[in-house]
Amino acid sequence: MIMSNRLNLRSFTMTFLGFAALIYVMAGCEKDDLVAIRSIDTVEPVIVWRTAETGGKFVANRKIDLVEFGVCYNTSPNPTVEDNVAPGTGLEEIIEASRYEAEFKSTISLLLPGTTYYIRAYVTTGSGTAYGNQLTFTTN
What we know:
Blueprint: H1 2-28, H2 33-36, E1 37-48, E2 51-60, E3 66-74, E4 84-87, E5 89-95, E6 100-108, E7 116-125, E8 128-138
Antiparallel strand pairs: 1-2, 2-6, 3-4, 3-7, 5-6, 7-8
């Protein structure tokens, strides 16, 4: 009888620990939107007077929850959202079973003449910010 109770207690403990471990692993596997992003590309800018029309395209493994998107820019390399930001507009989405694509436009205004600018598309989710490739252009 005592042996049977010990076996039941041990079986219960092992089952409970296994279940607890499964819950712990699943909690750690919350969807991380930054991990889902496969690529971000910055669109080549079109310069008209002191304005740059640009944007970005990104591909993810699944639909992601966007907090913000656009193009960041600066007169120094590797701009971030801590520098200057041109918010994205006109988000066009293509959603498939295991692929999510989106593109957007951004307008950078009030650019200084004869100045070199560095730009990068960015996507911000609840998990952080990811950046696209850096492009440069110089205004006339």
